[in-house]
Amino acid sequence: MRAWKGGVWSLGGQAVNVIVTLGTLAVLGRLLSPAEFGLFGLVLAVHAMARPVLDMGLMPVYLKLERIDNHASNVFFTVNVAVGCVIAGLIFAISPFVAQYYESAALQSLLKVSSLSLLLAALGGQPQAALVRSKRFDLIVKAQTVVLIAGSLLVIGLAWLGYGVWALVWRIVFEAGARFMILALISKSRFRLVGFQEIQHWIHELKFGLEIVGSRLLMGWVGSLDKLILAKFGSLSELGGYSRSQQFALMPDGNIRTSLTTPALAYFGRMRSENKLDNYLLLFWVVFLCAGGPCLILMAQGDLLLPIVLGAQWMEMGWMLQWMGLFGLAKVLQGLSVIYFMDNRMVNQTTFYSALSLVLVLMLPASILYFTGSIYYFVAVFSALSAVFWFVVLARALHVACARYSRKVASVGAFIAMTAGVSTWAAMALRETMMMQPVSELLIASGVQITVCVAMFYLLGREYFDRLKNMALGKQ
Q1: Domain containing 262: what range?
Q2: Within 56-102, where are the H helices?
Q3: Read out DSSP for 144-188?
Q4: If DSSP states are collapsed to H, E and C, what string results for 315-362?
Q5: Is residue 381 domain-shared with residue 463, that is, in the same domain?
Q6: pLDDT, tens digit, for every residue of 255-289?
Q7: How many domains does the chain have?
Q8: Global pTM?
């Protein structure tokens, strides 16, 4: 019952997160320039290169321990603090060289101040792990919501006062510090630093955590190298449009897909193993509709949505959000692949494919950008390759696991691709015939696109539609 309530709290928290984030972006998009967002995006890209190392993969290790005491908690807290100090110190130390490489004097001071957020984030890792272990998801969601709202008010106020990109930097520092203090207060835990001899007793657990970090680190690099490349060979304004478009495109995966997969896998885990493939295919259909659907809307109407939300100065960058919709769909497919590998205890597969995507997905777009200087082709090729790569990875994983059902896997994959293509074409064709205000055009075209998606799901995946209806009625 507590796990179910935790899922409800998580879903509610994600809904609040989306509303507050969109509202904040709508205000900031009119107060700050795309170049200021681009400079901040570069700061976050540098952070993302090292941020996956912050907790050393210790949270999943801590949660799997059968028994826990104050000594173990203190050891994990000490390691978190030590790693946080190292990472923050590293970012601080390399800031002059990064600023020189990107020819931006302001970048040095921005990186130095923002490195404090990494240390504060590391301090908050163990209090959050303690709350997760005790299944107090309601307290975590409440704390994160309070921090998000307070941080949004702070950044809007600072931007209004003319602090520019510094408003964004002070926000992440404030949120990291506030999150640590609130989580430490509500967890009612008192942690202390311990010596190296005590840490040695947990070397085995630390090594296991490092295996998890390897996969996370590769995924972090994949998520940041595109922005680092674009910052070097493009302009800060273009990077600002790209990073904000990517933020929109990642919302379906981060806020919808993650909220659906956890309870679904918990439900499937209680069912018979021979139904495993059908369970996964049903999950993929549902996630495609709920998380992939918004990505398809971005692909068809992104050029309308970006200036509507952020303001007229972003109108020329709307095409980026259209291509980023395809990238968002790729992240949904990647998330499903990782869930499949983790659920079947194939962590090495996650690491392998993350490394492979780092080479295959980025090499060609980066080469195109270097030789032609075309931002358009960089974004288009990167988004398309990402979607194709993770679609193939997911289809191959299911084919290998259930070779005798390869025809069913292929048919579901073809149905999903067909639904995406037809619904997007219908929305774009409708837009060409309409002469309306952008908001009305966006709402009508999106409604048509969603209707087409649901109708094709009913026609092409009738078996899964019936199963989903029976589950909702409690018949399965």
Answers
A1: 234-476
A2: 58-64, 70-101
A3: HHHHHHHHHHHHHHHHHTT-THHHHHHHHHHHHHHHHHHHHHHHT
A4: HHHHHHHHHHHHHHHHHHHHHHHHHHHHHCCCHHHHHHHHHHHHHHHH
A5: yes
A6: 777 766 655 555 555 454 445 566 666 777 777 77
A7: 2
A8: 0.82
